[in-house]
Amino acid sequence: MPTAIAVTSPDLVLPPTDPQTPLAALLQSPHAQPLDAALVDMHRLLEQHGYVIAFYPASIDAAHEHRLHTVRSLLETDRITLIKSDLPPLGLAILVRQLRQLSVCDFSPGVIASAARLLSHYIHAGAVLNSVTRLERIPVGLTAHAKSWMPGSQFAVLAHPDPQLVKVGPAGALTGPDFACHLLLAKGTANADWITGTLAPSWQVKAVQETALPADSAGWWGTGKVTEFAAYLPDISVLYQLVASVRREQCRWCAMELIGDRCGFCASRQPPEEEPAAPYGAAALGPVPASAYRARPLTRAERRRAIAPGP
Fold first, then answer.
1. From residue 268, how far is each of 213, 251, 254, 258, 261 by CA, in Å?
2. What structural domains does the chain harbor?
3. pLDDT digits over 264-306, tens only?
4. Fewer CB in 10 Å around end: N or C, the chain?
5. Contact 123/161 with Cβ under 8 angstroms?
6. pLDDT in tens, 168-218
């Protein structure tokens, strides 16, 4: 069975792109499910899949986050990893779907978990907002704050990977991906015409799909008048090659397989490659002059003198 991917909200479970993509398990909040039922559900996931990779947004309710850690602690298992993400709701939903796609491939649970950091760099997530007065996720200048009070103002914001903010209009432009991508659009009350008519052509988007606006979008962006969008790599073969091209290593703490410099399960940072030992003795006094190195092999006589016993 593939590694289980779990989420804390049904909005993070986008429809699969193919029949092979599995759904994600829902880890409900403590207000919706008692602790004993949550323990039973998680134990069942472990029995069926072996490992569970759970994603939750950084904006999650504190009680819900505490529940996730409580379940993992009470089950006393290292086969559950909890990954907190700063991505906007729509961008996180795309990342979860991509990892659902990869979960049926021949990648170990550790590689899938650590691939989340890699794939997130290829997600360009933003929104069109009618106001930025309560936007706290990216820096907003005083000029933008003042313009947001003007009737009819709209702003295009890119939150990830590099924060950007422009006023919607013919001159407004956001720097987008430098690769072939698709665009997912979640229409809200903010006008989406600029996204489909200006942004998508400038980013050379190959296709635009629509989905429902996540319930958490208003809180994340600081306004209910929002339309969210995200560009991403749609092809599973490209995602597979991207992850497979990275060197795999074994975590020195928990022994899980990983890619990158951080384990996806225990979150420990991997030490850099071993450096040459520090110099000692005469070599520690300073750099060795270039004249000390021979530009030619030693002769036979020189080799005999070099290995001859000293006086």
1. 35, 8, 9, 11, 9
2. 4-113 (3.40.50), 124-232 (3.30.1180)
3. 998 888 777 644 444 444 443 444 333 333 333 444 444 444 4
4. C
5. yes
6. 877 778 999 999 999 999 999 988 999 999 999 999 999 999 999 999 999
